[in-house]
C-alpha cells in the first residue's frame, strides 16, 4: 500500500486510458462562452474524449485532462485567450503534437489546453539566409517536405514527428545533434504570447540573423522553458544545406567501452559524423525482431555521414580505421536511400521494438547526459543496476553527446514494479549528477524530474529559476506543476 | 555649441586621456578600508592613474574612472566585495582586459572597478570531454598556448587577446564564428557572483556536458549580459580539435556584390569555410601599406579552410570554382604557417592599419549584422553614405555571418565631426534594423546603442529585459548605464 501511494505521488497510477478523477477547478459556463467568443464555438471542446486525448503525452504519466480544449486560428486569438485566462486565474497548457516524454501536457490543475496545431503556416522561407518562420502546427517532417526542392533542410530530429515550436519549447535534440546542434543552437527568434496576453518577439519582430549581441538572450530563455513562461506562436529556425550525399553504417563491438572509445576518437579526429548512435545488445535483439534486421546481437553503433562524395570516402575510411582499431566487426555500409532508410527507421522504431518485447506493458525512458569520458562507466553501471533491479531494460544513446536513454518495460497494473522503475530512474539521474552530468539531455524536466533539477542546479540556481518564473508568470498559470 | 552638447551627451567628449570631471559619488575612507579588509591593501587602489586606466576601453568613449580599483584573488573575495558594495549601494564594474569597443568598462556612476585578472588559473582541462574551466585572467591566447600539445583549441577569436570570461560577458565572436559559432555557442557553464554576493553556477556546480534540457537556460542569459547582471568568475568552455591542416587565401572581386555572392554560394554548397572576411578597397589599401602586403586594391575576401589534407584540397577546389564564377582575380593561397600568419596578422591589424591612415585621429567601429541576402544592399548603401558624409571610413566584415564593421576616422578635437560620426553610426544601425538585422553582431550594446536596442527589440522585449535586470540586480549596481 505504501508503494502504491508513492506511485500515485509520482503521478503514475492509473496511467492507462482512464483519466484522473482528482479534484478539478472546472470552468463556469460563462468562461467557456468567453472562450468561444474568442475562437468561435467549433474551436472549443469540453467533451471527455477530447479532454482525455489532451491530458497525456507519449510517456507513462497518467492522463490529467484539461477542463477545456481550444484551437486558436491565429496569434491574436492566442493573445486574447491568454489575457482571458490571466484575468480569471485559469491555468493554460500549450499543446502541439503531444509527443513529449515527460508529461509536459498533463493538466495538473485542469484549466485550458491551447491546441496550437490549427496555426500551421510556414510564414516565410528565406533560402539565401538559411532561415524559415513556422507556426506551431508545422511539424519537423512537414517542414522538410516543404524544403525538399530548395536544397535546405532542418536537421534536428527527435524521432517523433513533433511540432517545431513544441521542439523549441522542450529544447529537443535527437540523433543529428552531434553535428547540427540542438534546438538551442537552431532557434533564431521566437514569437511568444506572454501569460497576460502581451506579444513578445524574443529577438525583435521579424528579425533573423546569424548572430547578435543585442541585450539579454530572451530567445535562449524561452527555448526549453516547457510552456511554463508563455505560448510559442512562431519560431524562426536556422536551416542547413541538404547533404550532397549520405552514407549510413552499423558495426558491432565486443564491449560498451570499445563503442564509446570509437566515438571519442572519431570526435577527436574531427570526423564530422552526422549521427552516432549506440544500441546495446538487448536493443539490437529487439530491433532485429521488430524491423527484420540481421544485425549482430552486440553493442552496436549506428553511424551516418554527410558530405560530398569525396569527403564521404575519407570520413568512411577514417571511421573504419578507428572502429576496427577498437575491434569492431560486422561492418555494414548503406549508401542507397532505401537501405539507409531501413537502418534509420529501425533505429527510430527502437522504442516500439522494445515495447513489442512484452505486449501490454508500457515503457519509460530515462534521459541522462554526462561528460563523454564518463559514458562507459555509467553505461556499465546502468546495465549492472538493471540486472540487479529485475527490470527489463535496454539502452539507446546519442553517444556523441554523452546522452543515453535506458528504456524500461513496466506492467502498468503492478504498483511495486512502477515503484522500482521510479527508483531506478531517480538513482540513474543521481548517478549522472555525481558524474557532473545532467538529469535530462533532451526530454526536459516535465513532471517527474523536478527534485533532480533542484539537486542539479543547486539552491541559487533553483532560486534564480523560480524568480524567472515569477517574473514572467506572476500568477503561476502557465503549465503549472512542470519544471519547478 | 548645440553639436558640442550633443556630442557630450553621447559621452564622446573629451575622449582622449583626460578623465571626466563629472560629479562622482566618491567612497568614504571607511569603505575603502572595508575593501582592503576583503582583498588586502596592496590589491586596492584609488590612485588617479590607475583609476584612469580602468575608466576606458579601446573605443573612443571618454574615460569615466571608477572611484577605486580592486584586484580580488579568488571567488570568495569577489563574493564578499559584491556583498559589501550591495550593502552600501556602491556600483560595481567588472574589468577584464579592457579591450571592449562599446565603453563597457566606463564607470558612469563611479563606484568600484573589480579587476579580475589576478584570478588567472585554468582550473581544469578535460581533453576527452572537449572542455576547459578558466578564470577571468585567462586570455584567449593564453588558453590556446596552454592547449598547444593536447590537440585541442578554442576557436572564438575577436582579434584582441581578450579575457575569455570577458568574451563570455560581451557575447564576443569574430573571424571564426562562421564555422565554430560565437561565445553563445561555446560556453557550457558559468560561475557568477550575483550582485548581492551569492554564487550562481548557471548549469550547476562543476557540470559540463554537450547538451542539457534541465530548466531555464541561465548560461545563455549571462552570456552577453555585459557585466550588468553579475560578475563572471569562471567559464566552462567547449574546445574543438585542432585542424589537421589549414590553408588561407585572398582573392579580389570586381564588386561588393560579387564577393558576397561568392560567400553565399560557398555556404549553400556547404563548403565548411573556417573564416571568410570581407575588406573593401579602402581597407585593402591601408593593409597593403601597414602590413607590407601587395594585394589588389579592390573588394577582397580573406578565406581560411580547416581540415585534413584531402578535405582541404576539395574545399579549395570548390571555393576556387565559386569565386572564379564570380569573376574573382588575384588568387593567392597561403599554406605555410608563416605566410598564413602574415595574411591573418594583416587582417587582424586592419584596425591599426586604418588608424595609421591619419595619425592623431581616433577610430570608431560600427557593428551591424543583417540577413546575408541584405548584405550587398547595405554595404553599397554604407559606402554611398560614407561618401556623402565626408567622413573617412573603411569596411571589414565577417560576411559569412552578415556582420560587418564600418571603421570611421575622427578628429578627437572636432565636435562637429564627432557628431557626424554619431549620426552616421545611428543611421547605419537603423538601416540594419529596417533590413531585419541587429545593431550589434558582436561588440554589444554598451553605452552608445541603448536607443537602438529599444528600437530593435520593441517595447515588450525592452520591458522583459528591464524586468530581468531588476530581478537580478534590484539595486541597479552592476555596471550601471550599460545595455538598458
TrEMBL record, chains A, B:
Ranges where the FAD-binding PCMH-type domain occurs: 62-242
GO biological process: lactate catabolic process
Localization per record: Mitochondrion
Gene this chain is encoded by: LDHD
Protein name, as recorded: Probable D-lactate dehydrogenase, mitochondrial
Enzyme class: oxidoreductase
Signal peptide: 1-19
UniProt-recorded Gene Ontology molecular function terms: (2R)-2-hydroxycarboxylate dehydrogenase activity; D-lactate dehydrogenase (cytochrome) activity; D-lactate dehydrogenase (FAD) activity; D-lactate dehydrogenase (NAD+) activity; FAD binding
Keywords, ordered alphabetically: Acetylation, FAD, Flavoprotein, Mitochondrion, Oxidoreductase, Signal, Transit peptide
Assembly: Interacts with CSRP3.
